[in-house]
Amino acid sequence: MDALDKLGILAEAARYDAACTSSGAMRAPRQDRLGATQPAGCCHAFTPDGRCVTLLKVLLSNACAHDCAYCVNRSSASCARATFAPRELAELTVDFYKRNYVEGLFLSSGVLGTADATTERMVACLRILREDLRFNGYVHAKVIPGTSPELVDALGRLADRLSVNIELPSATSLEALCPEKSRDAVLRPMAQIRSRREDEERLLLAGGNAARPPRLGARGGR
After folding, report:
1. CATH class of 3-20+38-220
2. Mean per-residue pLDDT over the chain, rounded
3. How far apart are CA 202 and CA 107, in angstroms?
4. pTM for this one?
């Protein structure tokens, strides 16, 4: 499976994550027409100066160890599966940027084994993107519930924005529909991001040289 085949699967799989704007249509380019559509769409974000930027919205993998009843990528679902290697996705993002298709990346993933193992792959992808390929564009990353604090911190230092999905409205419904997840696993990284942001904002106000804090964005469940 080549990178574009994977993109077709993994961008389509990401459409159900928060803020997706997939067109849902397929129309190939034509010689006498402008533009084209793809079933896998992009999403958009607004920068502090008011610009709207287009992001490649994709999963690192739609293989998932969890079997959440509402999720199209659950382990028991019958669907095509694909997984990007970290460098493969980083290079694809830069290629799309150079072609003026996108200005940044929205990255999420199914759970590849464990939350930490998945986040390690996401961190590797963003580190290649930032350090090896020198990409300075906008990156929004989803935190996988249950990720260790050290990896949440590492992810936040490579992304412009972090967010965590609020999977379901109550601990009872979460337990019933997502038996592998817990309320604490969902809320703990949200509290960490908020606390870290507040700490670094205080340092910035005091004249310190702290790194730019990630922004917290809590969204509805996939």
Report:
1. alpha beta
2. 81
3. 28
4. 0.76
